[in-house]
Amino acid sequence: MAAESPNSARKVVVHLRATGDAPILKQAKFKILGTDKFAKVIDFLRRQLHRDTLFVYVNSAFSPNPDELVIDLYDNFGFDGKLVVNYACSMAWG
Amino acid sequence: MMDVLHWDGTLSAKDFRIGAFAFAQKWESRNLAFPPWSWLPCPKHPWLAPPKEEGYLSLEKICISRPNEEEDIDQISQIETGEEETCCSGNEDVLDDATLVQSNHHELHYCDFQIVYSSTFRVPVLYFRAYCSDGRPLPLDEIEKELPACSSKELSKKKWTFITQEEHPYLKRPWYKLHPCGTAEWMKLLFLSDNANPKFEVVLELYLLSWFSVVGQVFGLRISFKISD
């Protein structure tokens, strides 16, 4: 798992992974501040894919709340130095 | 032994019961800020064959009113990201939300939740009803004001096709529920996307936890994922 770092400006590598019939992004890897909320990743995905309704989740079959901090998600679900975030375009509801 | 690769994302009634107990246990150990879920047996109907230990999970009187300070923080973080189209709402909507919260500041709203098995869709369904501290039921448009901004936006776009009101299958009173027809599909995605081939027992153990991580977001409810095991 990640080494402890007191540096609050620490960045997390996020790898966006298309699942189901979702389009694959050309730019699928980026860095984000650990102190940012997961909402920022969701926003980014929505803008890149031009879709409002996305189903977003991480390993261990978990869909993070947009208020979660990216660093917390990385500490719990990250491996190999990155946080893999899966996305699908199926409707979550209905 | 079920082959998870060919699994359709659904549960049998028996598996729902197992999954529900596993969920309630994890919830109790991780969610210290919330009361535990109770398992209630389904009331027996004299005209049906006795159900095999059917029941549902119940969580009562959860305060869903959000404090003013939280609303202000959301507003600030959205502006600072410098994005024109934010996840939750445009600037106008954020200002409206803040005004609404202030006017409802003194009245707290509560919600009862139930996780009920749907034999039609073979998945859990979240039922809920909200009310004021004096017990007065809240209609959906009032409940909507308490939801995180992302949820309200989804609701307003889909115009009530996202949440429906119906008679509760067991309690026979009007409750709202989140539509279950997409559930199997996204439950499959949740478990099968990372090329791991989990055993079905593992899937069952985690099923409701994963399910709740999605549906709980409508209400801003979450379970701590900081796993100690």
Give a brief description:
The complex is a heterodimer of chains A (94) and B (229). With 94 residues, chain A is an alpha+beta fold. Chain A has helices at residues 38-49, 70-77, and strands spanning 11-18, 29-33, 55-57, 83-88.
Structure in words:
The complex is a heterodimer of chains A (about 90) and B (about 230). Chain A contains two helices and four strands, in the order ββαβαβ. Chain A is an alpha+beta fold and about 90 residues long. Chain A has a four-stranded mixed sheet with strand order 2-1-4-3. Chain A starts with 10 loop residues before the first strand and ends in a 6-residue tail after the last strand. In chain B, helix 2 (about 70-80) runs antiparallel to helix 3 and helix 6 (about 185-190) crosses helix 7. Chain B starts with 12 loop residues before the first helix and ends in a 14-residue tail after the last helix. The chains are: A alpha+beta (about 90), B alpha+beta (about 230). Chains A and B meet through helix 1, helix 2 and strand 4 of A and helix 5, helix 6 and helix 7 of B.
Written as H for each helix and E for each strand, in order along the chain, the element string of chain A is EEHEHE
Q: How many domains of chain A?
A: 1
Decide which structural class fits the backbone of chain B: alpha+beta
Query: What would the CATH topology of chain A be?
Result: Ubiquitin-like (UB roll)
What would you call the quaternary organization?
Answer: heterodimer
Largest sheet of chain B, described in full? 6 strands, antiparallel
Mean pLDDT of chain B: 76
Topology order of chain B in helix (H) and strand (E) letters:
HEEHHEEHHEEHH
Major β-sheet strand ordering of chain B: 1-2-3-4-6-5
Structural class of chain A: alpha+beta
The CATH class of chain A, by name, is Alpha Beta
